[in-house]
Fold each of these.
Amino acid sequence: MPCSVVATSKQTKKMRAACCGGVAGLLLSACGAAPETGVERGQRLLAQYQCGVCHSIPAAPGSVGRVGPSLAAFGLRSYIAGEIPNRPDTLARWIAEPASLVPETLMPDMGASDADARDMAAYLLALD
Ligand code: HEC
């Protein structure tokens, strides 16, 4: 409904209400797209950092690598690299700086920020 229609003051009020309602509706629908969760962001980042060059990772596009171990069902794994307890904090640390936990590891430092590593860890820990 156009907002600039000439009308009596009573009608104008009604229209204004309708128009404002429309604007509010638009704003709501713009914000309505649910914000990305850490897990969803992690899934996107795994593809962005190209972890899949070396790892097979479920539902992460292009992740078919065989250099490193498969990360399927990683949320069910007790240990990272066979020796570090698999928890959100240790997994994020591993992803950000693997050699800080296992100095002789073959996994390279991927240059992930702490925030990015935390979300990638959240995604991997959700895999079961
Ligand atoms: C150049 C190849 C390479 C890339 C790229 C790579 N990794 Fe790894 N990754 C490895 C190797 C090799 C291991 C095994 C290391 C070990 O056991 O010490 C490993 C181990 C892991 C483990 C532990 C696996 C297990 O079975 O315990 C996780 C989790 C992991 N990588 C996540 C990632 C993530 C997330 C990225 C992207 C940010 C990534 N990796 C990028 C090679 C790679």
Amino acid sequence: MNISDSERAITILETMGYKPASKQNEADLILINACSVRGSAIDRIHGMMPAFKILKEKNKKLKLVLTGCLLKVDRKKFEENFDYILDIKDLPRWPHLLGIRNQESGIRDYLKIKPKYTDEKIVYIPISNGCDNFCTYCAVPYTRDRLKCRSHKDVLSEVKSVIKNGAREIWLLGQNVNDYKSPADSSIKFPKLLKLVNNIPGDFIIKFTSPHPKNFSKELIKIMASCKKIAHYLNLPMQSGDNKILKAMNRPYTAQQYKTLVKKIRRAIPDIKLSTDVIVGFPGETKKQFENTLKLFKELNFDMGYIARFSPRPGTLAAKMKDDVSPKEKARRWNIINTILLKKWSRRK
Ligand code: SF4
């Protein structure tokens, strides 16, 4: 989603007369598109500040601009380091906010801005923005706000236009694609949208991210299995294999329900490549509860996994819980799952 946001930001910067610089020290404007989802991403921006300070001393014209998924607390921390902190949803007003133009563009919805695609073959197309799910560890409902879906007409017209320009892989993006409902026609939910994209003529494949296991419908499985252009690849975030931890995460499914869903998907699409997301060291996660995650992870034999160590994001419910798994223990749990993945890949080579 951040790539897609950056592509729209590039369009706006270009309308202001900016062109890409080949080196940082040649730039008159540096835009950082932040992500507050993990503490480590915010720490990386802090790490860049000394270098930016030197650049600013050398180039008095240099503007430092921060945008992206930012929690209030992170935004506050950066106030003195950046010249501007701008919301991505205010993109149409950036020229005005940056003092380049008095007039506002008149565009109200930032998703209406035509993006400057960084890759013409693999194109990321948002179908919604924000999230209503409030998983307790996640900053997205606070940084991106509540769910707002894009009209299916806008999505289809963007897909048609990129296909015409040679795109071969389309990624439909949403924080939970399964919550999608077109504001232009409430009968068009995610499975139907996928079918409509699949019906667009052309030689391309469709991927999407992320689907929530809680509302992964039979209809979606059927459409994935029957539509030729939909890739047999799926990232299905599991997060934990322990029911108590899933409950504490506000993930409304059990380990058994997740397992049943995976089985149904594999039965319908036998050659599907499955990946998952797991958080280790969530507050209160005992060794036994981690073992439950490990057991399910091994049993489901994922092709790929994205394993994160829990880091509290201020303002979320999980940040109020006791972060009682030590960094060393989080690293141990993280290593155990990653070793399984590494062994799997080395056997494949
Ligand atoms: S569904 Fe995804 S984006 Fe939404 S709150 Fe949960 S983890 Fe965050």
